[in-house]
Amino acid sequence: MEDSRIIALFFERSEEAVKELSEKYGRLCLHISNNVLNNSQDAEECVNEAYHETWKTIPPKKPDSLMAYVCGIVRNISIDRLRHNSAKQRNSGYNICLDEVEDFLSDCGGIDDNATDDTVTEAIDQYVSSLDETDRIIVVRRFWLCDSYDEIARITKMNKAAVYKRISRIKKGLKESLTERGLIR
After folding, report:
1. Which residues, in sequence order, are CB contacts of 86 under 8 Å at separation 6+?
2. Can you name the CATH fold of 3-85?
3. In 10 A of CB 129, how many CB atoms?
């Protein structure tokens, strides 16, 4: 079913909307949540909570991309659950990705104190948009979906070493881009 029709079902307050949403994006939502939490039971609960949150927010919201909308909700709920479950434990795929980003930022010297979140986000979005399709897939799979290097290698049909090399090159390019814009120290 088309996203526009699913959104219309939400506006009609039809319970079919959640069923159709689950059928279309349930596996992706579960994948995202499980990558963050590394716990299938918690992941299922977060996905169900995301469906409920989607039900509560559509209407009045009418997202341009239903997939991005529900995936963003499930990711945020999963991150909140992770923080709640284990503030000190750092063993999920999400925390490993977070460590990787923190290491990258500290290697760069950190974000400039005068840079706003919106400015940095826009600069990163523009940089990622300038990448070729494979590199964009790698970035999204690693840093948004929190996929492992093995999973990314499988999806992109590359070997793991090539994925590491590409991510390293992408980070180097991002550092240069942010430096040119004066957004990192």
Report:
1. none
2. Rna Polymerase Sigma Factor; Chain: A (1.10.1740)
3. 8
Count of beta carbons in the 10 Å neighbourhood of residue 104 = 15
CA atoms of 74 and 176, how far apart (whole Å): 32
- Tens of pLDDT along the chain (185 residues)? 999 999 999 999 999 999 999 999 999 999 999 998 989 999 999 999 999 999 999 999 999 999 999 999 999 999 889 888 765 554 556 556 656 766 666 666 666 667 677 787 788 889 999 999 999 999 988 888 888 899 999 999 999 999 999 999 998 898 888 888 888 76
Handedness of CA 27, 70, 145, 37 (dihedral sign): negative
Q: Hey, what CATH topology would domain 93-180 get?
A: Arc Repressor Mutant, subunit A (1.10.10)
Continuous H helices in 12-65: 16-37, 40-57
Q: Which helix (H) or strand (E) holds 75?
A: helix 66-85
Give the residue carrying structure tokens 């079902």.
Answer: 9
Longest dimension (CA), the chain: 51
Where are the chain's structural domains?
A: 3-85, 93-180
DSSP three-state, residue 165: helix
CA distance 101 to 93: 13
